[in-house]
Amino acid sequence: MHAHQKTIKHTLQIRGKGLHTGQMIDVTIRPLPINSGIWFKRTDCGESAPILASAENVSDTSLATTLGWGRQRLSTLEHFLAALGGLGVNNIMVEVDGPEAPILDGSAMPWVNLLYSAGFQILNAPRPFYRVAKPFKLTDGDKFLAVEPAPEFSVDFTIDFPGFLKTQKRLFKFSESAFVKEISPARTFCLLKDVEQMQSRGKALGGGLDNAVVVCDDGVLNPEGLRFPDECVRHKILDFIGDLSLAQAPILGHFTAYKTGHALNQKVLAELLSLPGYLEKSEAKGEAARQPRNFEIPLKAQLGPLALGPEGKPFNPVFAN
Ligand SMILES: [Zn+2]
Questions:
Q1: Residue 72: Cβ-neighbour burial (10 angstroms; 0-12, 13-18, 19+)
Q2: Residue 261 pLDDT
Q3: Is residue 262 among the annotated active site residues?
Q4: pLDDT value at residue 314
Q5: In a domain, 106, yes or no
Q6: Which residue positions in the chain have pLDDT lower than 50?
Q7: Is residue 277 located within the same domain as residue 135?
Q8: Ligand 1 centre and the CA of 24: distance in Å?
């Protein structure tokens, strides 16, 4: 686990296509001081309030993780959040000029490379963390997510699909290098029949073989094939790391995930954070500042315009594993 708080050395910029809207989206990532947290700000909505990347600000989990505050929405953040969690970057401001983060190649690798390109500033403050104090499990139909006490973060993930994907199971024990090499390159995936259905309804307009693995009955449509034989379960671990990053501190415990997605991941996280006795937080030091010090949140900006998707309808993400 990363012992110290971290930010980036320089401001970064990246431009890429949004998975749902197909629009080109610009992202600017700026360093913030200790105890700030990870903040997102929409720059295409006039005077927009920033959104803290926290579990209580999750507004939608229908296949992508969406943050919402007031009437602002920002979607498809989990791959970027996974990169931040994997590299231990916990103090930044991210400005996005659209309703979703760019999908890039569908994995966290471009975000990892971007963050490394800035270099990191190790901050003189311990990074807070949670320790799992007693086991917890939540079941939803045939899916479940369980956690038990352990000295480090680990997850044993299983997916089970009919046809080509079959059952894939992988144990990931956290280290930055294991995250970068084994998990961050794994791309999002979807079934061909789901893509056709979504695009006929005007969804996933930016989706394609350059940003997702498309699975058909006997293989994948992508001409370059898979990056790993078990790329799909690796991507589910990537999404899981992104989802858990909304705890705002690493959770030291062993998770067992069976067929879970963003919705169950966020439900378990919300319960762990709210029910007494499951998580113990490390000693907080200098935690007075819960917001970035270099800006104030204008309350009136929370009533900004609702983010609109194609055809002027409220943006409702349906795609992205
Ligand atoms: Zn994903």
A1: buried
A2: 92
A3: yes
A4: 31
A5: yes
A6: 286-321
A7: yes
A8: 19
**Residue 12 placed within a domain:** yes
Contacts of 60 (CB under 8 A, 6+ apart): 66, 68, 73, 75, 316, 317
> What single-letter DSSP state applies at residue 182?
I
C-alpha of 216 from chain center: 26
pLDDT digits over 272-309, tens only? 999 999 999 997 554 444 444 444 333 222 223 333 33
- The pTM (predicted TM-score) of the whole model is 0.87
Structure tokens at 171: 């144990």
The per-residue pLDDT for 218 is: 87
Ligand 1 centroid distance, CA of 283 (Å) = 32
Interval 243-261: pLDDT, tens: 999 999 999 999 999 999 9
306 and 233: one domain?
no
Q: Are residues 36 and 66 in the same domain?
A: yes
Residue with tokens 């700026």: 30
Compute the distance from residue 286 Cα to the ligand 1 centre, in Å: 34
Inside any domain, residue 196: yes
The per-residue pLDDT for 63 is 66
Ligand 1 geometric centre to CA of 85 (Å): 14
Q: Which residues of 131-156 are buried (b: 16+ CB within 10 A; e: fewer)?
A: ebeeebebeeeeebbbbeeeeebebb
Domain that holds residue 138: 130-281
Same domain, 145 and 277: yes
Q: Going by C-beta distance under 8 Å and a sequence separation of 6 or more, which residues neighbour residue 11?
A: 28, 29, 30, 31, 118
How many Å lie between the centroid of ligand 1 and the Cα of residue 236?
A: 7
Active-site entry in 20, 79, 235, 262: 262
